Amino acid sequence: GESVFVIAEVGINHDGDMKKAIKLIKEAKKSGANAVKLQTYITDYRVPRDHPVYDILKKCELTHDEQKELFEIGQDHDLMMFSTPFDDESVDFLEEIDNPVYKIASFDSVNTKLLNKVRLTKKPVIMSTGMTNLDELGSAWRALGGKEDGTGCELALLHCVSSYPLEEESANLAIIQYLHSIHEGPVGYSDHTIGAHIPVFGVAAGASIIEKHFTLDSRSEGPDHSMSADPQILSE
């Protein structure tokens, strides 16, 4: 009986700029989002220093104080604020600021160590399923505390195709109904297409959650801006 839950995935589209991050939160609210999602990580744990994206990630790495401030600003605007952690220390920090739900990125669906850490929080989990096969999905469920009888873990699955940007004809929205057939919890769609139209079809296909990367300007420089929704697209 609830409306579709819309997540504005700010991710690293703030480019490490707090003023931009605050504006993204305010614009997400104006555009009708229910939640804003950040990314919480320590760059040196994610990639080696000689990795091509090291400098980008380092530039966009927010301090704990900055993230705490953003959570408070979002909550003041009646938005759910939550984050994707990429390491154990980030989970510990997010627990300190009472992160209400954990997002697991597609490529961490096989990161048993991180999943076990998140399980200990006893918080609900939203997990994207890009590149994840059925056996891996079952292993992730068990790592998060799920039992063979389907109980024991509050988990929402997001159908996701790990292509950036995603061509519309490759969205494979039929997988949403397949996920419903194997999973008793909520099923949604994490979208990487350009525009608003495939997420709308995703809802028609059975998604109750839509996650969309969010930016102030899709022409900005950076890895995610070009396939992100700006305020007008998110409103649509």
What are the main properties of this structure?
10 helices, alpha/beta, globular, 236 residues, 8 strands, eight-stranded parallel beta sheet
End-to-end Cα distance, whole Å, is 21 Å
Report the order of strands and helices. Answer: EHEHHHEHEHEHEHEHEH
Spatially, the strands of the biggest sheet line up as: 3-2-1-8-7-6-5-4
Report the strand count: 8
Helical content class: 25-40%
Sheet/helix structural class: alpha/beta
Q: Mind describing the biggest β-sheet? A: 8 strands, parallel
Mean pLDDT, to the nearest integer, reads 97
Give me the oligomer status.
single chain
Shape: globular
Q: What's the tally of helices?
A: 10
Short description:
37% of the residues lie in helices and 18% in strands.
SSE layout and pairings?
Elements: E1 5-11, H1 18-31, E2 35-40, H2 43-46, H3 54-60, H4 64-76, E3 80-85, H5 88-96, E4 102-104, H6 112-119, E5 125-128, H7 134-143, E6 155-160, H8 174-182, E7 187-191, H9 197-204, E8 209-213, H10 231-235
Parallel strand pairs: 1-2, 1-8, 2-3, 4-5, 5-6, 6-7, 7-8
Question: Describe it for me?
Answer:
With 236 residues, the chain is of the alpha/beta class. An eight-stranded parallel beta sheet has the order 3-2-1-8-7-6-5-4. Helices cover 37% and strands 18% of the residues. It is globular and about 45 Å long. It has helices spanning 18-31, 43-46, 54-60, 64-76, 88-96, 112-119, 134-143, 174-182, 197-204, 231-235, and strands at residues 5-11, 35-40, 80-85, 102-104, 125-128, 155-160, 187-191, 209-213. The two termini are 21 Å apart. Helix 1 (18-31) packs parallel to helix 4 (64-76). The model has no long low-confidence stretch (mean pLDDT 97).
